[in-house]
Amino acid sequence: MCSLEKRGNLWILTLNGDDENRLNPTLIDSLLSTLTNLSSQSTPGSVLITTAKGKFFSNGFDLQWARAADSKSAAMDRLQFMVDSLKPVAAAFLSLPMPTIAAVNGHASAAGFMLAIFHDYVLMRSDRGVLYMPEVNLGLPLPDYFAAVMREKIKSPVVLRDVLLGGVKIKGNEAVKIGIVDSAHDSVESTVEAAVRLGEQLARKKWMGEVYAEIRKSLYPEACDVLGLTLKPIISKI
Description:
Elements: E1 2-7, E2 10-15, H1 25-40, E3 47-52, E4 56-58, H2 63-67, H3 72-95, E5 100-104, E6 107-109, H4 111-117, E7 121-125, E8 130-132, H5 135-138, H6 144-153, H7 157-164, E9 169-171, H8 172-177, E10 183-185, H9 188-203, H10 209-219, H11 221-227
């Protein structure tokens, strides 16, 4: 499950799943429901900050749940179900009418890594935790929307190769250096504090959420196409 707390113009979304915040159907449903409700409550100046409890931001899809099925084919069906279920969550983040910040408190692996970079800004702790896409090591293909988001969020071909084809584990300071993360901080507390400071700076802009969302979507046309998102014409007061 996840929880949502309002602090002024800031919305703090916290993942409260299992010890690794693995993305199982329950947590994915909770995320989508929370984002859907949040979208309807957006006002000028709203900002979302996402973090998690424990040493993991998220360890990706719940492969243990998938493997608990009574056959290999059923296990693959469960995995595909999670892949399909997370897709509208990705679409919800890209179309959310407010700036979004991920305060990565620990390891973010596979779909957990994706969850982080669905956000506009990513802050990460430097003392522990890595970003990691292990699909090449696990023998799992990359979902189409994972690949589309990665291509548009990570512009360096070398970095993209190392992340997806090399399965490298990237710590906070290195993630900043190669342009995946905006800043790294020496503890989970300082990471969240920095996210709140950034959120407050963005909130003071009082941007119109609907316009912000459409501009965001225009930056990632390939991802929006794969996710089934279209740009909406908006005429503001002049």
